[in-house]
């Protein structure tokens, strides 16, 4: 089968399109003919050996897919060959056929396209877990989203808006902020040119944001924490800026607020039933149109390296997807 192949941990440019043997499904696994695969920030890290998962060579990147089940291994009963599914695979998705764990594969409802599922499974799954589970978001609360024009960021904007929250979007350019407005953000802050804390305080009458969605890290985390309301919840999701922040603990005390870790992979591993329940909620909203993954562009295997470069270079707003057969 054709696949984008990683032969050693190196730069994105070392990836090549070539032939790999089709994977086989072991017990508890299944194989999927990939209709579409999403591009996420960690796909750019895994090929450089900078992600916690380090696959054996050769492998294909591509951590989330949607497609049709080819074969199921022993013990897999919730889906069968021919079923439409989506899956979190960690890697392997930029290939015509990939392998997935049964516990991280879910049936796709009618009306949800492969493109939508592949563009939204990880980002909306993560944002849903953060906002509805870890932060216990309520209608009327104010949600500040950092990196709001990115994959997880736009998912958080949409999910918060759909739940009746007021959304403050922080991103790195006017163009990116316009996209955030189109997806429901009410207040827009360019955090590369404006003081984040002052802007959030001024937009909230001095109270601060009830919930902070932080996928960026670096200096923005402390600024956002300083702009958090009494009893607020700050969600630590990712460090796209490349720097893991250190937090003065007295800020948590003074604000009576919570710093909450959000690790979707670990939710799937430790609480597969709860993860499946949350994924079903997300997919149901894709089906009824109340949430809609923002697909910016699609490419074939030959265009995947350029697309991954664009994402890593902060040039992508919304989501890019790969069509391995395209
Ligand atoms: N914890 C979990 O379960 C989980 C799940 C999914 C993703 N993540 C993590 O969350 C982070 C965001 O993922 P994503 O898929 O939303 O990525 P993404 O689409 O690339 O979005 C990240 C955003 O961060 C902003 N950013 C600020 N400084 C940056 C820098 N130096 N380099 C790149 N981006 C920068 C960019 O927006 P501006 O240019 O507008 O500032 C960008 O839109 C990643 O670190 C990822 O690993 C965690």
Describe the structure.
The protein is α/β, with parallel strands linked by helices. The protein folds into 2 domains: 2-121 and 268-322, Medium-chain alcohol dehydrogenases, catalytic domain (Quinone Oxidoreductase, Chain A, domain 1, Alpha-Beta Complex), CATH 3.90.180.10; 139-262, Rossmann fold (3-Layer(aba) Sandwich), CATH 3.40.50.720. Helices cover 31% and strands 25% of the residues. It has 10 helices and 15 strands. The chain has helices at 41-46, 114-134, 151-162, 174-182, 196-203, 220-226, 250-255, 264-270, 272-288, 304-312; strands spanning 2-5, 16-19, 29-38, 64-72, 84-88, 97-101, 105-107, 142-146, 166-171, 187-190, 209-214, 228-236, 258-261, 295-299, 319-322. The strands form 3 sheets. Strands 3, 4, 5, 6, 7, 14 and 15 form a 7-stranded mixed sheet that branches. Strands 10-9-8-11-12-13 form a 6-stranded parallel sheet, sandwiched between helices. It has a two-stranded antiparallel sheet with strand order 1-2. Strand 11 (209-214), helix 6 and strand 12 (228-236) form a beta-alpha-beta unit. Helix 2 packs across helix 9 and helix 8 (264-270) packs across helix 9. The two termini are 13 Å apart. 52% of the residues are buried. The site of NADP nicotinamide-adenine-dinucleotide phosphate (NAP) has 29 residues, from helix 1, helix 2, helix 3 and helix 8.
